[in-house]
Design goal:
By secondary structure, this protein is α/β, with parallel strands linked by helices. The chain has two domains: 176 residues, Rossmann fold, CATH 3.40.50; 94 residues, Pantoate--beta-alanine Ligase, Chain: A,domain 2, CATH 3.30.1300.10. Helices cover 38% and strands 19% of the residues. The strands form two sheets. The protein has a six-stranded parallel β-sheet, with helices on both faces. It has a three-stranded antiparallel β-sheet with strand order 7-8-9, with helices on one face. α6 packs across α7. The longest helix has 16 residues. The structure holds pantoate.
Length: 287
């Protein structure tokens, strides 16, 4: 595996891979890799001839008072994991390489980014869209893979790719890979390591309460009662607060009061011991 830290090194490495022919898949990450990321890497290897992974803790997607400084950084460990997976290229830029002095541009994606995490974390999706657009332009991959755990992020990135006519990758080659879960159902996340063993055990209430709410919504069609129950169950289980719990159209992310013909998603963000956890699951229409 080749590790590159400057744009010039990256361009040489990418043209080296391209020179050998074949396709390139990009897996953008912020590091602190877990099995969820490795699933993306394995899927990328299955689908493309070469795999590039980026590791960059992007400061512009963290708001004031968020966990930018505390965010786990473990490049040597991550690099060993990627090497073992047979990744071809690791792009690990510094903040200065990504945002040189004078950097002044930002991509804002309206609509899909305005509610949910976009409302709770002002500027977050501008930071994500801008850095992902840069990563796409730097690596020019044939496809890019993201975890469905960040459902809204995936919708924002796809919208951006469509709106800006990106060609590497095309919007349809931005692939969402199903969330990888711990044995107790908690979605894998680099932030799970902030939880004490006791809070980590409590956190499993999130996917469990979501599954119950979905079963109820799928049976009744109506969302409001199930969402209210879900919030109550989370608080009673030990969560401090619920930022949002909503049924939404899977593509537009418009809130829905009822299940319908179109694919829908239950989206939740909740806080436990100072850690904000997000999750989402598919909801079928009522029979
Ligand atoms: O999901 C993440 O890890 C980040 O938001 C991403 C897509 C790598 C952009 O910094």
């Amino acid at each position: 595996m080749q590790t590159v830290t400057t744009l010039e090194m990256l361009r040489n490495a990418v043209s080296g891979l391209r020179g050998g022919g074949g396709t390139i898949a990009l897996v953008p990450t912020m590091g602190a890799l877990h099995d969820g990321h490795l699933t993306l890497v394995r899927e990328a290897k299955r689908r493309a001839d070469h795999v590039a992974v980026s590791i960059f803790v992007n400061p512009t997607q963290f708001g004031e008072g968020e966990d930018l400084d505390a965010y786990p950084r473990q490049l040597a460990e991550d690099s060993a994991m990627l090497e073992a997976e047979g990744v071809d290229l690791l792009w690990a830029p510094t903040v200065e390489a990504m945002y040189p002095r004078g950097f002044a541009s930002s991509i804002s994606v309206d609509g899909v980014s305005s509610d949910f995490c976009g409302a709770d974390r002002p500027g977050h999706f501008e930071g994500v869209a801008t850095v992902v657009c840069k990563l796409f332009n730097q690596v020019l991959p044939d496809m890019a893979l993201f975890g469905e755990k960040d459902w809204q992020q995936l919708a924002v990135i796809r919208r951006m790719a469509r709106d800006l006519d990106l060609s590497r990758p095309l919007a349809e080659d931005i692939l969402g890979i199903p969330t990888v879960r711990e044995p107790d159902g908690l979605a894998m996340s680099s932030r799970n390591r902030y939880l004490s063993p006791q809070l980590r055990a409590t956190a499993a209430a999130l996917p469990n309460a979501m599954k119950l709410a979905i079963a109820e919504m799928e049976a009744r069609g109506d969302a409001a009662t199930s969402l209210a129950t879900l919030e109550r169950v989370l608080r009673e289980s030990g969560f401090d607060s619920v930022d949002y719990a909503a049924l939404a159209d899977a593509d537009s992310l418009q809130r829905l009061e009822r299940t319908g013909d179109r694919p829908a998603r239950l989206l939740v963000a909740a806080r436990i011991g100072g850690t904000r956890l997000i999750d989402n699951m598919a909801v079928k229409a009522a029979d």
